[in-house]
Amino acid sequence: MPIETHIDPENGIRRHILSGEIRAEEIEAVLTEVASDPGFSAETPALWDLRGADNLISPDRIRSLASFANKTWHDAGHPRVALLTRRKVVFGLARMYEQFLSFRNIIQLRVFEEEDEAVAWLVDSQPADA
Known about the structure:
Blueprint: E1 3-8, E2 13-20, H1 24-36, E3 46-53, H2 59-73, E4 80-84, H3 88-102, E5 108-112, H4 115-124
Parallel strand pairs: 2-3, 3-4, 4-5
Antiparallel strand pairs: 1-2
């Protein structure tokens, strides 16, 4: 699964665009890479665009991915992350991921079906001087 990552200069958010088959290992690699980047700031909100993803991660892998994210990001403050999806099945699995993350209250995550709503939520989370 290709994951394209870039900073959206207009909104100041980090975008991860997924396409093709979803592999939890590739998502874990991106999470690790971002968290270990010296320029990383938890104040930079992230949008994970799942609209181009084909396959689904199993509920068991979603649970382990949430655990991995919590362990990886536990010292990063409370980053704000939006998941964007169009397919109802992916939306349901993304909501499951949201629930697994909410138990630890480390990452603020919401699932959206509309990109403008996701971006507005992320942009509203930024400090006034950002």
